[in-house]
Amino acid sequence: MRPLPELTPENTAFWTGGAEGRLMIAFCDDCARAIHPPQLVCPECWSEKVESRAVPGTGTVYTYTVNHQPWAPGMAVPFALAVVDLDGAPGARVTAEVVNADPESIAIGQKMKVGFLNIDDVWFPQWEPAQ
Amino acid sequence: MTLNAAITGVGMSDIGRKTGRPAMIHLAEAARRALECAGLTKNDIDGISTYPGKADNSPGMSPLGTGEVRNALGLKTRWHSAVPDGPSQMAPIQVAAMAVATGQARHVLCFRALTESSSQTASQRASIPGAGRARLGGWYSYLVPANAMSASNWAGWMAQRYFHEFGMTREHLGLVATGQRAFAQANPAAVMRTPLTMEDYLGARMISSPLGLFDCDVPIDGACVVIVSAADAAKDCAKAPLTIEAMGAALGSQETWDQRADLTTMGAHDSAADMWARTDLKPADVDVLGLYDGFSIFVPYWLEAMGFCGHGEAKDFIAEGHIGPGGRFPVNTGGGQLSGGRLHGFGLLHEVCTQLWGQAGGRQVDGASVGACGMGGGFIAGSMLIRRA
User: Fold this and answer.
1) Is B99:B72 a contact under the CB 8 Å cutoff?
2) Neighbouring-strand partners of residue B79
3) Among the four residues A27, B45, B324, B358, which has the most C-beta atoms within 10 Å?
4) Contact between residue B372 and residue B282 where contact means Cβ atoms under 8 Å apart
5) Degrees to nearest 5, angle at CA B168 with B187 and B129
């Protein structure tokens, strides 16, 4: 059973944007910094004008790992986890499972696009190769 | 630049896998040995300090808090602390050093006790944060629900980036694992003492690429106690006090395992730099090292963070034989956590102290008088320099 994140004022947009196919990232309206994981206050300028908005949902693999160990009952292995630098949100990365690809084919520098897995009230980002 | 604080005694229980012994029995045994080492009695102990305190966030991770240990051992303390947030598993020792330096206590019993091995079951692995909870919060809620459940995964993607940038290979990490196993063979207390060859290492199953089975430390049951004493009180102890020369706790990046701008560095780099800024000693003065090896990849990171070699140079430093048996900068001479068992850093400090007291038997580093210890991986990091007074 996959554990779910608790939904909070700062993270609800991130975890539910997938319902509309959108990857939602928090940004500071005053200094334009991307903030991930999302926060209520900008860590750069302490502005409270933080709002989430959709980014393109594409990015570049900064790093990855292929997990072979079943950490929980029923976990299907192997699968790749990709840490992806987001297009449109400099300095922010989203780590998620890779789907629709051979886990061993993933490489640093590869272009990825987002999709979503819905469980309960959460839409988990997942990465797949952009091409 | 010396703190008015010293380590005066260390003690470790008989550690093992699936011992079936309650944590308190391990703790009492470790405490008895530490008091004997220091030449103190329980009535001398007036402070108690631990990491993280009683915690149920992962099976067997921390079954004892300060309260029940104080009750069970009949301690009358003037000061106590449990530190879940702080500069790594080293936090309780750093906090204790500050407590004795400011007169809050004279002799602090710092402990780590765990039963991760016995607590693991078919459905409950050790060190899965938030295991069993309905909903997760905090930094790991962005990782665990994405099936990045284990620190093996987080360390795996750090290692992958490091390999990519600097050309490190699994053979380099194999030298860490096999070197520490060679040390463990000379340590009767280590849990893994059978010879480990490079062939064994490379042939083992993959856990989270590029990290395989022997890149991961070993969950155990056991306890370790370190006694931190005020400098003036330390003079009355059985052994030459080990003065705490400098400590580092800096962290300049987010508390997550995937957002640090450069994942070929980690919190260790901030913490160690801060430690060196507080002493006139240099890496060349260090004789023996205890570097956190929850995963083998942390050892090269810590070597670079502490300045024993440059950024990206650890693979060559390791291949040149500096850190294994007979090397100039021997690391984790008791076998570390990879072969000695995971005592969450306390075991590494225990070994450094044992070396500085010249009591490491067949693995003794001749004339060791200055030790460096770094605990933690990812964003978690505490650094400490200790020396024979």
Assistant:
1) no
2) B47
3) B45
4) no
5) 65
Return the amino acid letter for B20: G
Q: Closest to A83 (Cβ–Cβ): which among B134, B152, B258?
A: B258
The DSSP element (H or E) to which A16 belongs, if any, is helix A12-16
Q: Which of A1, A16, A64, A81 to mutate to test the interface with B (most CBs of B within 10 A)?
A: A81
Q: What is d(CA A10, CA B126) in angstroms, rounded to the nearest whole number?
A: 30
Q: Which residues pair with A66 in a beta bridge?
A: A80
Cβ distance of A65 and B147 shorter than 8 Å? no
Taking Cα atoms as reference points, which of A112, A90, A83, A121 lies closest to residue B156?
A83
Q: Which helix (H) or strand (E) holds A13?
A: helix A12-16
pTM of the model: 0.97
CA–centroid distance for B14 within its chain: 17
Helix (H) or strand (E) holding A116: strand A111-119
Q: Judge whether A60 and A85 are in contact, CB under 8 Å.
A: yes
Q: What is the pLDDT of residues B44-64, one digit of tens each?
A: 999 999 999 998 777 888 999
Per-residue pLDDT reduced to its tens digit, B229-261? 999 999 999 999 999 999 999 999 988 999 999
**Considering only B51-60, B102-111, B124-133, B179-188, which range has the smallest mean pLDDT?**
B124-133
For residue B350, which of B231, B224, B241 has the smallest C-alpha distance?
A: B224
Cβ–Cβ gap A65/B164 under 8 Å:
no
What is the rounded CA–CA span in Å between residue B339 and residue B220? 11
Distance CA B150, CA B152 (A): 5
Q: Euclidean distance between the first and final Cα of chain A, in Å?
A: 31
Which of A5, A72, A92 lies at the smallest CB-CB distance from B141?
A5
Work out the minimum CA distance from B162 to partner chain A, whole angstroms. Answer: 9
Q: Which residues on A lie below 8 Å from B148 (Cβ)?
A: 67, 81, 95
Calpha distance B219→B368 (Å, rounded): 29
